[in-house]
Amino acid sequence: MTKKLFVDTDIALDLLAKREPFYDSAARLFTLADQQKIKIYVSAASFGNLNYILSKYKTASEARKILSRFKMLVKVLPVDDKIVDLALHSDFSDFEDAIQYHCALTHGMNIVLTRNLKDFKRAKIPVMAADGFLGEIERG
Fold first, then answer.
1. Distance CA 100, CA 8 (A)
2. In whole angstroms, what separates CA 38 from the centre of its chain?
3. What angle (nearest 5°) sits at the alpha carbon of residue 134, between those of residues 54 and 42?
4. Burial of 44 (0-12, 13-18, 19+ CB in 10 A)
5. Which residue among 37, 67, 76, 86 is least crowded, i.e. fewest CB within 10 A of its CB?
6. For the purposes of burial, counting CB atoms within 10 Å of the CB of 39, is it exposed (0-12), middle (13-18) or buried (19 or more)?
7. For the chain, which residues make up each domain, given as ranges?
8. Mind listing the pLDDT tens digit for each residue in 28-69?
9. Are the beta carbons of 5 and 110 closer than 8 angstroms?
């Protein structure tokens, strides 16, 4: 069975904004998705966040083009009323992380990939950094 990998906004931004020193791990991860070796899921909320951040460094048109290409690599999961309620009533200190986590949990993801491990300490599913996940699959 293929693992359902939920990728947090920070790792997507590492790829799209080429943020060092994290870009290489993000690029390797999304290359595997492009090669259809893994399936990556993101929340619909990530697209709003990514557009907002990318638009600070790129024109609105450039940001949308980047996101259009990115969308071909991922499956977008909806954020609905239930997920927002779960996030509002969770013990996450960061609301955006709460939305991401409950989106992943609600949609049956096997792993959450993020650089923000400390905010996911009480997660009911495994949470890893991209480089940790890549190391595991390389070891087989």
1. 7
2. 14
3. 40
4. middle
5. 37
6. middle
7. 4-139
8. 999 999 999 999 999 999 999 999 999 999 999 999 999 999
9. yes
Could you give the CA distance from residue 4 to residue 80 in angstroms, rounded to a whole number?
19
Cα–Cα distance measured from residue 23 to residue 93, given in angstroms and rounded to the nearest whole number: 27
> Which residue reads 């239930």 in tokens?
82
Pick the CATH number of 4-139 from 3.40.50.720, 3.30.450.40, 3.40.190.10, 3.40.50.1010: 3.40.50.1010
Q: What is the pLDDT of residue 3?
A: 80
Residues 6+ apart with CB under 8 A from 60: none
Contact 117, 97 (CB under 8 A): no
pLDDT category, 15, cuts 50, 70, 90? very high
Q: How far is CA 34 from CA 3, 15, 78, in A?
A: 15, 13, 22
Q: What is the pLDDT of residues 87-138, one digit of tens each?
A: 999 999 999 999 999 999 999 999 999 999 998 988 999 999 999 999 998 8
Q: Is the peptide bond before 78 cis (omega within 30 degrees of 0)?
A: no
Question: How many residues are given for the chain?
Answer: 140
